Amino acid sequence: MSSLPQSLRRSTLALGLAAVSALAVAGCTNEAGNPQTANLVNGKKLFVQKCGACHQLRRAGTKGLAGPNLDAAFSVSRQEDWGDKAISGVVYGQIGYPGIGNGMPAKLVTGDDARDVASYVGTVAAKPGKDVGILATAVPTAGPAKTAVAKNGVLSISADPNGQLLYVEAKAEAPAGPIKLEMPNKSGIDHNVVIEGTPIKTNIVKNGVAKGSGTLKAGTFTYFCSVPGHRQAGMVGKLTVK
Ligand code: HEC
Predict the structure, then answer these.
(1) In this structure, is residue 32 part of a structural domain?
(2) In which order are the strands placed within the sheet that holds 154-156?
(3) Deepest in the core among 45, 96, 229, 236, taking most CB within 10 A?
(4) Region 153-166: what's the mean pLDDT?
(5) Half-sphere exposure of residue 138, counting CA atoms within 13 Å on the CB side?
(6) What pLDDT was estimated at residue 170?
């Protein structure tokens, strides 16, 4: 079910709960994830931007592979009838204290933002169905994939601005010959474009425009993001050179 051994998972959950009760004892007014008062729209947006590149969460549409799938991680808790709030508490603890050297940076979100993210995950993880109401449109879903067409010697392929692991253009067309490759990336997540089977690639950039150049030969090529896990999650496209 989870990619983590059960014993490890249990200790992660126990740690999360310990963090929650520590907060309760401290009488902290910033409650650790209360789905009733939290801003779930803000939580969903931030989850996609800050967490989704490493975690799958079906309702948020995120596909990251570096960390555990959060629906799988909390499916046992749901079966055991944990409420949204209890799961939010575990997530809140994990955000603040992910543990040392396990690959998850601490405090990616803080204060009310951390509460909102934790509450969103607690509200949707391991639940069937899809987000409704304002939550459904909190994060613009990538529309049908577009086609990038080279103009004046420049081929521009954008990364999803909301932080999902995909390119806005899943197809691209360019003439054979010298090309400048660009990847506008408005998200805060590192990405690049590599054209497989050629030396052409951009540098890795977040919140900016990645650039590269080279000479294209006629044929069909795959382009992808070489940041670990991103290609597998869907950052891939087809380039046709004529
Ligand atoms: C750079 C990748 C990365 C990012 C970004 C990241 N995580 Fe993680 N996360 C991991 C890894 C790796 C683990 C597994 C190690 C562990 O359990 O601490 C993990 C574990 C977790 C767990 C525990 C799951 C379980 O099986 O018990 C939760 C909950 C979680 N992350 C939530 C979040 C939230 C919320 C965010 C955004 C604020 C986030 N993560 C951002 C990599 C990441």
Answers:
(1) yes
(2) 154-156, 177-185, 208-216
(3) 45
(4) 94
(5) 23
(6) 94
Looking at the fold, whether 13 and 123 belong to one and the same domain comes out as yes
The Cα-based distances of 15 to 35, 71, 93, 98, 120 in angstroms read: 21, 19, 7, 9, 20
Where residue 192 falls (left for φ over 0; alpha for ψ -120 to 50; beta otherwise) is: beta
Of ligand 1's listed atoms, the one at least distance from the Cα of 109 is 38
Ligand 1 shell residues, CB under 6 Å: 2, 4, 9, 12, 50-51, 53-55, 66-68, 70, 73, 91, 94-95, 98-99, 102-104, 108-109, 117, 121
Task: Tell me the CA end-to-end span of the chain in Å, nearest whole number.
Answer: 46
Q: Of all protein residues, whose CA lies closest to atom 22 belonging to ligand 1?
A: 94
What is the pLDDT, as a whole number, of residue 33? 55
Specify the ligand 1 atom closest to the Cα of 117: 35
User: Which residue's C-alpha comes closest to atom 15 of ligand 1?
Assistant: 102
CATH of the domain at 198: 2.60.40.420
Residue 150 and residue 173 in contact, taking contact as beta carbons nearer than 8 Å:
yes
Instruction: Supply 229's token pair.
Output: 């896990």
Residue 208 alpha carbon to ligand 1 centre in Å:
25
Q: Which atom of ligand 1 is nearest to the CA of 47?
A: 37
Asked if residues 118 and 89 have their Cβ atoms less than 8 Å apart, the reply is yes
Tell me the β-bridge partners of 57.
62
Question: Domains in the chain: how many in total?
Answer: 2
3-state secondary structure of 13: helix
Domain that holds residue 154: 146-241
User: What local confidence, expressed as pLDDT, does residue 34 receive?
Assistant: 60
